[in-house]
Design brief:
- This protein has about 425 residues and is an all-alpha fold.
- The two termini are about 35 Å apart.
- A two-stranded antiparallel ribbon has the order 1-2.
- Helices cover about 85% and strands about 0% of the residues.
- It folds into two domains: about 180 residues, MFS general substrate transporter like domains (Growth Hormone, Chain: A, Up-down Bundle), CATH 1.20.1250.20; about 220 residues, Growth Hormone, Chain: A (Up-down Bundle).
Length: about 425
């Protein structure tokens, strides 16, 4: 079994952890989209939808790091089972009360709090059950599952809601969470690392643990660089999702409903291809160089996205189209699909080595706090760009905003060249 992905999946515990991630991420992302659709259908108000989005994000800011502190003290396997079962039970409440907007906000908020404990238990568990030489492959598989689940949720939430109705949709999603928790039973009990002096286990206060986590993030070079890159990657995804509808209508000239197929699908495929590339060809390459390459590839794709129509109108494209059959003629949509694919590849170049670096450079008693802090920081720092990018796109146009984002990403790449 020479293929590193098959080797990773051949690890029984990792296989079931990966299956759990696939199911839980599909359920969580579909739930988020369906909650937005249900809130809008109840009120016909964009403000009501904003309330749902805030219910997702505020718990991450308030509880992300604190949840990581507790997860590092607890058994991660039990945390993963408990959080999936709790989300199953909370969704059962929505099966009955989803037409009540106050309950919709409340349950969404509580589910998001529970999820803050799920996040620092899931990815940090990988190095506890996977051999060190398979960490890169395992993180690649996790990344592909994560972005693949977003694609599935994006594409299927509307049809899922139409087909089953909101009551049955919440019921089926709750069952998926329960299945995700069930898979964790087959994961072997991970070894918990504890600090021992003499015969006593040293227990630190919450304040000390938070301080140590922040110190590690700020002072350990590999961790701080990887941490920053993962935040950039998450904010980029949030920003592109905000301007996605405008990009579809203003630049691609297609309906919003077509956007997932034309953009999200090739991006998810690109993520998968990028993960394979990183694992098979860049495994001996510096993790930092792989991530920096990802930033530059991302910047180039962002620069080119507003100019797809100009490329399609170039003389050499017109000449090429003259000799191609109608089904293969190159147009702006083909160019956008390629660029979306490239964005997915760039995300893999950032995501996979950065996660692997954090796992290699931190211990189990620290890892949950790092990922909790990552989730909290990304949510907090993402609020302003997400708010600004929508307004800037309305004022200056989506194309201009994409170029500005590309310049920022390229600048980060240049800074990394001189600092890593």
């Amino acid at each position: 079994m020479d293929n590193p992905f098959l080797q990773a999946l051949g690890e029984r515990s990792f296989f079931f952890l990966w299956l759990s991630e696939v199911f839980s991420q599909i359920a969580m992302n579909m739930m988020n989209f369906i909650l937005i659709l249900v809130a809008f259908s109840i009120t016909k108000s964009n403000t009501a939808v904003s309330g749902i989005v805030l219910s997702f994000t505020i718990p991450a800011v308030l509880f992300g790091l604190l949840a990581g502190v507790f997860v590092d003290r607890w058994n991660k396997k039990k945390v993963l089972i408990a959080t999936n079962v709790l989300r199953f039970l909370l969704l059962l409440i929505l099966v009955i009360l989803h037409n009540n907007l106050v309950m919709l906000y409340t349950i969404t908020f509580v589910i998001s709090i529970v999820t803050q404990f799920f996040i620092p238990a899931e990815t940090p568990m990988i190095p506890l059950i996977v051999k060190k030489h398979l960490l890169l492959s395992a993180n690649a598989l996790f990344g592909f599952a994560l972005y693949g689940s977003i694609l599935i949720a994006y594409a299927l939430s509307g049809p899922f809601l139409l087909l089953f109705g909101s009551t049955n949709a919440f019921l089926l999603l709750s069952v998926i969470f329960l299945l995700a928790g069930g898979f964790i039973f087959f994961v072997r009990e991970p070894k918990q690392e504890k600090i021992i002096i003499g015969n006593k286990v040293i227990s630190k206060s919450i304040k000390e643990e938070v301080k140590n986590a922040i110190s590690t993030i700020l002072k350990v070079g590999d961790v701080s660089h990887a941490f920053s890159l993962l935040i950039v990657a998450q904010i980029l995804i949030m920003v592109i999702s905000v301007i996605g509808p405008g990009f579809a209508t203003q630049i691609l000239g297609v309906s919003i409903e077509q956007f997932p197929i034309l953009f999200v699908t090739p991006a998810a495929i690109g993520m998968g291809v990028g993960a394979v590339f990183v694992t098979n060809f860049l495994h001996r390459f510096s993790r930092h160089k792989s991530a920096t390459l990802g930033l530059f590839v991302c910047a180039i794709a962002l620069f080119l996205m507003p100019y797809g129509s100009r490329v399609a109108s170039k003389e050499f494209i017109q000449v090429l189209n003259y000799y191609l059959p109608p089904a293969l003629k190159v147009n702006i949509l083909h160019i956008m699909v390629v660029l979306a694919f490239i964005l997915g590849v760039s995300n893999a170049l950032i995501f996979v080595p950065s996660n692997t670096l954090i796992q290699e450079q931190t211990s189990d008693e620290m890892r949950g706090k790092i990922y909790g802090a990552l989730n909290a920081t990304a949510s907090l720092l993402g609020i302003l760009p997400v708010v600004l990018v929508g307004s800037l796109a309305d004022i200056f146009g989506v194309g201009t905003v994409l170029v500005i984002i590309g310049i920022i990403v390229a600048s980060l790449g240049v800074i990394r060249l001189f600092t890593t």
